[in-house]
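Exercise 3.2. Students should predict the tertiary structure of the chain below and write it as structure tokens, then compare their answer with the key that follows.

Predict this chain's 3D structure.
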Amino acid sequence: MFGNIGWGEFMILLVAALVILGPERLPGAVSWVTRSLRQVREYASGAQNQLKEELGTDFEDLRKPLADLNKLRGMTPRAVITQHLLDGDDSLFTGDFDKKSPSGGKSQAGVKPQSGAQEPMSLTKDKPLAAGERPPVDLDAT
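Answer key:
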């Protein structure tokens, strides 16, 4: 219930309560709040148990879509892509390409193209372009 209240906010609330209620009434107020929270928690668990008893197996049928909705609410775009498009294989995101390569773990960067295939043009040159020289164009990329 108070999961997103940090220590700083808690201390501010405590100081505000001490100023508003005073040191005489603060212990009574704290005990009243804890009793009230405990009672609300008991009412909620009692209502849940009563629903389970009355609905029986239908209660689980109602909980399943809610659990699916909570699961979808927590999904990130990366998790959706990993689960549905990549069948749970997140090596695309982690950079473990060598583990899944078909050549048994060897990188294919040093493999020459088959005969008849045009060798890709290098986009980086060792020397800078001369004045008036046009940069190379990769026709496959355009």
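Discussion points: Residues 7-55 form the longest helix (49 residues). Helices lie at 7-55, 57-73, 77-85, 91-94, 97-100.
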